[in-house]
From TrEMBL:
Residues 517-595 form the HRDC domain. The keyword Transport does not apply. The keyword Kinase does not apply. Residues 26-195 form the Helicase ATP-binding domain. PANTHER family: ATP-DEPENDENT DNA HELICASE Q1, DNA HELICASE RECQ FAMILY MEMBER. GO terms for cellular component: bacterial nucleoid; cytoplasm; replisome. It is an enzyme of class 5 (isomerase). This is DNA helicase RecQ. It comes from Pontibacillus chungwhensis BH030062. GO terms for biological process: DNA recombination; DNA repair; DNA replication; SOS response. One of its GO terms (molecular function) is hydrolase activity.
Length: 595
């Protein structure tokens, strides 16, 4: 069967070989074994259920959490000549009925549905009369109560599946799953350990950056100005920030759209379509935007505010560079953002135990912003990535241009002060004491009598705070979980206090400048415009025609014949039949122009 899988991969999708992890996952499905795939965004998860769906007899049901994802995937499959459809609330009752009737008749190889569809006994009854090839849970972390985006409606599908009687092989796919989430998914979907394929979380094409101490608007303006034709997402925490950013960028002449829950469904849908079709280059949005958006040419993701946890951040940042091309993931850090996230946790309707868990996750996110370690390595450690990785060599910490300063003395003073304050106060109060503040609270608690009082009076209070946050990030200090976190010493801090270890910290991180494309940009732009015209004619997103990565390879290889063009990654027989001749003509015109 795997020989046929290779044939389908090349014929329909234009790839000569599978990516790491795809082959064993597809093999499990073809052997009718329930399986779970944990692969980073852009790792090719969709192919893991699409190829078995094409080879197995019957219709594949794909359970997807977002309407936008369904439409993107269906457009893409239909563009490859694969009969596919979706059934969700965007359709009228008559349209839903007709599509379900066609599904029962075996007209479609793939049908995408929302999890809420399984609440309908009529839908379950229709599936009983349908020959099913497989059922796939996309964004499978949504079914786990431990997942960062848990959805009760998604989890309830599991029980409903038992009513089918003709249950086929089941597959779960996700980009972000801690050990706890993985075990929960396995239990719910009856997946054995041997049938879990974890390729790790590493995204080698992503350049992670943390920007501190810069005015956010100035940074965004300068950054976007250098890449006016590139697609990017800017995530903000509140509707107010999104409206303000959208208005400002519009005035600056940026082609920008916005997306948040305060807009009507039609407004959100219109903004999303504009972004997918490259009619606007920048999307300003809350984190409600993007899950499952199969837009491969997003070149950067900027977080205007601190995300609530690392799982959310890695998933949102991972929407950049799905085509494998180098892309930027930038977090604009401000200490004020921490208070906003604490406020959101406190105002939520979560149980106290869950709030405590969210405070723990938020602290890990704050630690990420203050570590001097490789940023990608920090996140891979958080996820307990099964593969060992060296520093990425391209994040803002790996490429720092700041000064490496020995802060052992300052660290000893801070740690000693925490101890003398009986580990009952937070970073703000500790900073005031070692700075020598004469604030009322310092005087009332008589901390001005401590031997550590004022020993760092030569430093600014914000610089002391940064050192404290760094000591937390590196594990020399721990933070008690809660709304008002208290500092306490760790086992690691003893070696610093005894003078057995030194502490070094990077001062004033700087990010690496944007690298220019190693292709003829005029030719690349011509091919982009041809792609956009064809996409408009076929009423599909541009990246469904060809990805940016494929266009760049066409620019470099400059194929002259069909056989040469079929050697380019992303060009299969089906794609060549539809668009190949037009792109060959465009490439020949360019050759004549410069010869």
């Amino acid at each position: 069967m795997m020989k046929n899988a290779h044939r389908v991969l090349e014929q329909y999708f234009g790839f000569s070989s599978f990516r790491f992890g795809q082959e064993p996952l597809i093999g499990h499905a073809l052997d009718k074994k329930n399986a779970l795939g944990i692969m980073p965004t852009g790792g090719g998860k969709s192919l893991c259920y699409q190829i078995p769906g094409l080879l197995l007899d019957g219709t594949a049901v794909i359970i997807s959490p977002l309407i936008s994802l369904m439409k993107d995937q269906v457009d893409s499959l239909n563009s490859h000549g694969i009969a596919s459809t979706y059934i969700n609330s965007s359709l009228s009752y008559e349209e839903q009925s007709q599509r379900m009737f066609d599904v029962q008749r075996g007209r479609y190889q793939f049908v995408y549905v929302a999890p809420e569809r399984f609440d309908s006994e009529g839908f379950i009854s229709s599936l009983r009369r349908t020959k099913l090839s497989l059922i796939a849970f996309d964004e499978a972390h949504c079914i786990s109560q431990w997942g960062h985006d848990f959805r009760p409606s998604y989890r309830s599908v599991v029980g409903q599946l038992q009513k089918l009687g003709n249950l086929p092989v089941v597959m779960g796919l996700t980009a972000t799953a801690t050990e706890e989430v993985t075990k929960d998914i396995q239990h719910l979907l009856s997946i054995e350990d041997d049938h879990v394929v974890n390729t790790g979380f590493s995204r080698d094409n992503l350049n992670f950056q943390i920007v501190k101490g810069k005015e956010k608007h100035d940074f965004i303006q300068d950054y976007i100005k250098t890449r006016p034709k590139e697609s990017g997402i800017i995530y903000a925490a509140t509707r107010k920030d999104i409206d303000r950013l959208h208005q400002w960028l519009s005035r600056e002449g940026v082609k920008v759209a916005k997306y948040h829950a305060g807009l009507s469904e039609q407004e959100r849908k219109s903004a999303q379509n504009q972004f997918i079709k490259d009619e606007v280059t920048v999307m300003v949005a809350t984190n409600a935007f993007g899950m499952g958006i199969d837009k491969s040419n997003v070149r950067y993701v900027i977080h205007y505010a601190l995300p609530m946890n690392i799982e959310s951040y890695y998933q949102e940042a991972g929407r950049a560079g799905r085509d494998g091309e180098r892309s930027d993931c930038i977090l604009l850090f401000s200490a004020r953002d921490i208070q906003l996230q604490k406020f959101l946790i406190e105002q939520s309707l979560m149980e106290e135990e869950k709030k405590t868990e969210e405070y723990q996750k938020l602290q890990q996110m704050v630690n990420y912003c203050h570590t001097d370690k490789c940023l990608q390595e920090y996140m891979l450690t958080y996820f307990k990535d099964p593969f060992r990785h060296e520093p990425c060599g391209m994040c803002s910490n790996c490429l720092h241009t700041g000064e490496i300063k020995d802060i052992t003395r300052e660290s000893q003073i801070i740690l000693s002060c925490v101890k003398r304050m009986n580990e009952r106060y937070g970073s703000g109060m500790v900073a005031k004491v070692v700075k020598g503040s004469k604030s009322q609270k310092v005087m009332e608690t008589r901390f001005h009598k401590l031997s550590t009082y004022g020993l760092l009076s030569d430093l600014k209070e914000k610089d002391i705070m940064q050192m404290i946050q760094f000591l937390v990030a590196e594990g020399y200090l721990a933070v008690e979980d809660g709304k008002f976190p208290l500092l306490r010493l760790t086992q690691e801090s003893l070696a610093i206090l005894k003078g057995e270890e030194t502490v070094q910290m990077i001062i004033e991180n700087a990010s690496k400048a944007h690298q220019e494309l190693d292709v003829n940009e005029d030719l690349f732009e011509n091919l982009r415009m041809l792609r956009k015209r064809l996409a408009e004619e076929h009423k599909i997103p541009p990246y469904v025609v060809f990805s940016d990565a494929t266009l760049k390879e066409l620019c470099q290889a400059k194929p002259k014949t069909k056989s040469e063009m079929l050697q380019v990654k992303g060009v299969g027989e089906k794609k060549f039949e539809q668009y190949g001749v037009l792109f060959l003509e465009a490439l020949q015109e360019e050759t004549h122009q410069y010869s």
